Structure prediction request, 179 residues.
Amino acid sequence: MPGSSSSARHPSALFAPLALLAASLWGCHSASRVDTTDAQQAAFVELITPRAIEIQRYLTKPIASRKDGPFDTIEVILAALDRFNDPVKVVGTFHFELYVARPASGDRLGQRVAFWEVVIDSQESLERFWDRPSRYFRFPLKLEPPTLEPRAYVLTARFIAPWGDRLFSQYELPEIPAK
Prediction:
């Protein structure tokens, strides 16, 4: 009735404030960022950043893509380890180099045979190289030309973090048998 006051309100009068509240709670949420100037957050980041990389000696090996073909790929299994020596995922750039091993020498790195750069900078690239069951990275590195001569090789891995930290690992592969 016109002119009469009623304590009952129209349902749409309550809807507008509720809709505004819901929008502010759901639609305006932004991803949180780490503030490394905050000492506590910097300490948390230090706990989960990699402290070492390690080529897994018993799992890294040459493989052949064809059963009867030559070894044409080095399958590198690599762990990125935090300060507790637990495997962690990382983003950044990996450089892998394969050298002929120099026998009876203090410097085991002979002629460089191959170089690979692998960039992990997205969820897709992380999922491509991260092996969930083992919690290691798996890098199938194709050789050009696609063959390894029967001899010993040295494999090096270098990780460069987005903020510039560098980590290194080296592994001498046992002598590659003739295939």
Summary: The chain has three helices and nine strands.
